[in-house]
Design a protein that fits this description.
Length: 130
């Protein structure tokens, strides 16, 4: 169910990008109880002129290795689960591919469950599915 969009500066090798995918999925499985094989993720790369960030907002020292991770999720998780996701994801990305904690920017967008369609034009999570 989560839909993940990762954005970063152009130039990282495929193994780096795949490690991001793998560890986002792992963190979601471990903290949000995401089902096996529930992997819907995209990654976009941006030239420097098309990638802007504050190098110091909220007293966080960011670098050009900043990675934006936006996740659209159902609004069914509590604050403790969200905090656990943030912490686990930063830890895993620090291990592989080696992203500094300061360079992991996470944004959750919560939607109601009936706002999802996984195919066939059906709202699979809606209680009265047609």
């Amino acid at each position: 169910m989560p839909f993940v969009h990762v954005s970063l500066r152009t130039g990282k090798p495929e193994a780096y990008r795949q490690a991001i995918f793998n560890n986002v999925y792992r963190a979601l499985r471990e903290t949000f109880n995401v089902p096996e094989d529930d992997q819907f993720m995209i990654l976009t790369e941006h030239e420097a002129a098309n990638f802007r960030y504050s190098p110091s907002y909220m007293n966080v020292a960011r670098s050009d290795d900043l990675v934006y991770i936006q996740m659209t999720v159902s609004n069914t998780r509590d604050l403790d689960q969200k905090k656990a996701l943030f912490q686990r994801l930063v830890k895993l990305l620090g291990e592989d591919p080696g992203i500094r904690p300061e360079d992991v920017f996470i944004n959750l967008v919560e939607v109601v469950k009936e706002n999802w369609s996984f195919g066939h034009g059906h709202a699979q999570y809606a209680s009265n599915q047609n």
